[in-house]
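Summary: Need help interpreting a holo structure output

Steps to reproduce:
1. Submit the protein chain below together with the SMILES for zinc ion.
2. Request a joint structure prediction with the ligand placed.
3. Inspect the structure token block that comes back.

Expected: a single structure record containing both the chain and the bound molecule.
Actual: see attached output.

Input attached:
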Amino acid sequence: MHEAGLAVRFVEAALEEAAARGASRVTAVGARIGELHGVVDRHLEEFFAVMARLTPAEGARLVIERVAARSACPGCGEFFPGQPYGRTCPACGRGRLETAAGLEMELVWIEIE
Ligand SMILES: [Zn+2]
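--- attached output ---
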């Protein structure tokens, strides 16, 4: 399942970062996720809690920052809300819209002790 794989990645990244900083415990994790991944926050939180069990991140809070989908025109540089869907740029009528945001999937910060 998508959320399970994501949870593993976030737990591993948080533990790696915590180890690099010499922390004994991770208390919170901030993740940035684009809406195009269709992730269900509650499922991700549940899997995160399970994957973090028996690690220094056990009980850590997962804070999810959602990024809205945006499209961009490579021709004129204009941005538009939503997915491109192969649309032609409504501003210049030439460029084909490309995905500019909404595919993020990254660990942004961790809180450690
Ligand atoms: Zn354009």
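--- end attachment ---

Reviewer comment: Residues 2-112 form a domain with the hypothetical protein PF0899 fold fold (CATH 3.30.2320.80). The pocket of zinc ion is lined by residues 73, 75-76, 78, 89, 91-92, 95 (CB under 6 Å).
Status: needs-info
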